[in-house]
Amino acid sequence: MITTKNLSKKFGKTLSLDSVSIELNKGDAIALMGANGAGKTTLIRLIMGYYHPSAGSVLINGHNPIKNRIEILHSVSFVPQLPPPIKLSLAELISYISHSSNVEEKLIYHYANEMKFDITPNLHKSFFKLSGGMKQKFLIAISLAKESQIIIYDEPTANLDPKARDDFYRLLSTDTSQKLSLFVTHRIEEVKDIVNRQIYMDLGKVVTDERY
Amino acid sequence: MKTFKPAIKNLLLIAYLDLKESIRANWFIIYSLVFGGLIALFFIAGITESQVMGFSGLSRLLLMYIQVTIIILPIFILITTVRSISGDRDSHILEYMLSFPISLGQYYWGKVLGRFITVFLPVFMAMALAIVYGVFKGAEVPWEIFFLYTGLLFSMSSAFLGIAFFISSLVKSSEMALGISFFVWIFLLAFIDIALISLMLQNRINETLIISIALLNPMEIFRVSAISLFDPELTVMGPVAFYILDTIKQSTFVLISILYPLMIGILFAFFGFRIFIKKDLV
Ligand SMILES: Nc1ncnc2c1ncn2[C@@H]1O[C@H](COP(=O)(O)OP(=O)(O)OP(=O)(O)O)[C@@H](O)[C@H]1O
Ligand SMILES: [Mg+2]
Question: What domain range includes position B178?
Answer without folding.
Answer: 4-278
